[in-house]
Amino acid sequence: MTDAHREARRAQIRAAALRAFTAKGYQRTSISDVVAESGLSAGAIYGHYDGKQALFAAVAEEVLSRRGAEIEDASGGGPPSPLTVLTILTGGMTRDLEDGRLLVQLWAESTVDEVIHDVVQEVVGTLRGVLRGALRTWYATRPDLAPDGPDAAAELLLPVMLGLGQGFLMQRAMLDDFDPERYLAAAAAVLPA
Amino acid sequence: MTDAHREARRAQIRAAALRAFTAKGYQRTSISDVVAESGLSAGAIYGHYDGKQALFAAVAEEVLSRRGAEIEDASGGGPPSPLTVLTILTGGMTRDLEDGRLLVQLWAESTVDEVIHDVVQEVVGTLRGVLRGALRTWYATRPDLAPDGPDAAAELLLPVMLGLGQGFLMQRAMLDDFDPERYLAAAAAVLPA
DNA sequence: GTCTATACGGAGATAGAC
DNA sequence: GTCTATCTCCGTATAGAC
């Protein structure tokens, strides 16, 4: 089997795992669920991934790393505003995940599972680095909003940006009456622009 | 056994469950863990609660309802600012829970468990009602910040307030280098004041 | 009301044939 | 590499004595 075929099969397994985890949540999803969703067998899954935990880590890494890439892409046409960055984050997650359930599962698991914790720590770290860079270059074009310099301003806004993104995904996943556009409008009202 | 004794025993069980859920996460916590933590037996637990799910719901309800009470208390000395409200929310959770892990577990579970979903829906609904009331009265004292009236302004800010609170708890629970004061300072910079 | 002991089901993971 | 079949453990919940 060529490397390409091997990676294709791994991608197939990850995609099935993503669907299964999203539908039932990480903990309630059994390997049998992934088996059923993928059309493969338990043996096949374990031939490619060490187990459920490794599979979850792989899926999480795939999803989160795309957001960093998207923000860097968007920086091509001039520095994106904080609101634009937030829109990219939430829009990308919406496209990949339909709802935010998988990420909420990931965050919960990261507070209680060492391995997942480390994976999240690393991948959120790089995403935050990309965010920081984007905000810095934007503040550099708006010195009126950054009296202490763009770096300090970006560093200060960073946790809030992350929080607003997490809030969006959380509320979309858990509240029946969540209104995405309303949330982004509210965020726009508080973010610097 | 008097009602007071009965409630005391139930509180004892809830407290043990809270500790156990916080330490290992909801799903990984077994009834045996709660048994060990409480010093009681399985039979005793089931004599007071229908099972793990009901116990989790009871704990969640207890914790969240306190925040509503605290915000209403604070409204006694004049309408609290958005930042004050956020500080009450995060400070209260810090006091009750040490870290935000239990709530992150709750949110994750609410996206995947019908019963927990309904409980969260209701209790977050009332908390949101309290928040809405507090923001309205505050905006009423600051008509310069509410061109469309205090009600509209409060309604718009509501999801952001919730998001910032969730972001605080999430990041505290999952990020090694989280700085609570820095987060609140950053929130203060974006919130109306 | 509370204990001890246990029934019952389901989970993750592996063995061995193909 | 993949399948079928299965092993082993652990979790929830209950039964029955006190």
Task: Please describe what this structure looks like.
2 copies of one chain form a homodimer. With 193 residues, chain A is mostly helical. Chain A folds into 2 domains: 1-49, Homeodomain-like (Arc Repressor Mutant, subunit A); 52-190, Tetracycline Repressor, domain 2 (Orthogonal Bundle), CATH 1.10.357. The first copy, chain A, contains 9 helices and no strands. Chain A has helices at residues 3-24, 31-38, 42-48, 52-74, 82-97, 101-110, 114-141, 150-174, 180-190. The longest helix of chain A is centred in the middle third of the chain and has 28 residues, at 114-141. The radius of gyration of chain A is 19 Å and the shape is elongated. The model of chain A has no long low-confidence stretch (mean pLDDT 96). Chain A binds a DNA duplex (18 and 18 nucleotides) through residues 1, 6, 9, 30-32, 40-44, 46-48, 51-52.
